[in-house]
Amino acid sequence: MEKTRRSRPIKSTTLLVRPAPGKKSRALIQFGTITVPAAIGRSGRTILKREGDGATPIASMKLLYGFRRGDRPMRLETPLAIRRIRKDMLWCDQPENPNYNRLTKAPFLSSHEEMKRKDGLYDVCLVMDWNITSRIRNRGSAIFFHLIKPGYEPTAGCVAVHPRDMRRLLPFMRKGTIVHVL
Questions:
Q1: In the chain, what are the domain boundaries?
Q2: What is the pLDDT of residues 23-40, one digit of tens each?
């Protein structure tokens, strides 16, 4: 909850992701009075999201829950449910598999992403409800809100921010907070 100059509380429930000028893979995130830079999909944004297209879906997506690396300390203050990532946690991105766009466990032979990444992108990883509660094969998987690569390199379709900005936003993020990509 933030306060205005009149000390009236403002309750933000929507995080806006707007395209930034210059690069299709860059965005600005606005949440109440906070504005931070972000990286989005290498192909920019799309209303016709498909598995592997490298685009961030233009949509309103609710935050469901999150993950964090326990072996890389980062103080997290958030009302959002956060689970510690285990080495055997994987996310299925194989459209033909019954576990498509779901958390699964190693060993797992179908195509997947490791949640415990070596590059640190998922040290804090929030799951947005893209193709999860109403799942459609090939519509895209693993659309997360996570940490950036150095230089704000593009994502594969996720929304990514700097760790300091994640720490600024997390206290206001809870289950049901809307991430609205414009």
A1: 8-181
A2: 999 999 999 999 999 999
At the fourth CATH level, the homologous superfamily of domain 8-181 is L,D-transpeptidase catalytic domain-like (2.40.440.10)
> Which whole-number Å values give the CA distances from 142 to 3, 12, 137, 151, 156, in the listed order?
34, 25, 13, 22, 9
Evaluate whether 146 touches 64 at the Cβ level (below 8 Å).
Answer: no
Residue 87 banded pLDDT, cuts 50, 70, 90? very high
For the chain, give the percent of residues with pLDDT over 70: 93
Residue 144, classified by CB atoms within 10 Å of its CB into exposed (0-12), middle (13-18) or buried (19+), is buried
Helix (H) or strand (E) holding 2: strand 2-3
The region of weakest confidence among 11-15, 34-38, 77-81 is 11-15
4: number of CA atoms within 13 Å, CB side? Answer: 6
Alpha helices (H) along 16-125: none
Report the DSSP pairing between strands 103-105 and 89-92.
antiparallel
Instruction: Report d(CA 17, CA 30) in Å as an integer.
Output: 7
Mean pLDDT of the 18-26 span: 96
